[in-house]
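Troubleshooting: if your tokenizer reports a length mismatch, compare your output against this known-good record of 166 residues.
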Amino acid sequence: MQFQVPQFIETEDKIIGPLTIRQFIYIAVAGGISAILYFVVQTWLWAFLSLLLLSIAISFAFIKIEGRPLAHIAISALSFYWRPQTYVWQPEHPQMPKSAESMKKLETPGFSLESIIRGLALHKTWQDLQTGTKAKPMFGKKVSERYEIFRRLSGEKQAARRVDYR
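Known-good structure output:
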């Protein structure tokens, strides 16, 4: 059994000449406001305001940014700046009670051998990343990977693997 699948569902129909109904409404509203301003304000001010209104109407009618009309982009931008921004922090263990006794239980008193070894391994790994070397492989295999540290525009450092194609 064959079914006909509709295509081009995102394209609007051309109603008035080469314009869609939305494009025509933008330009018609700007033209109507310009006609009203012709009788209300002085000629030089009318020319300036008409040029401004028609350029805004044409940009709303024809400009698309990544497939979205400029009107949708403007509405999204206004709603983003108008609404308050809420940043929510989610704790790792929300069920754990937050008291002084429970926090002291999480701390390990003094230094343990495990924490010292873990710290040394972390220090060695970080040093290897900073210098661009990698830990010596086992059984004498040669490793040709190198790492470089670069700074992003935000100022944070990041390690990246360097690949040389030869």
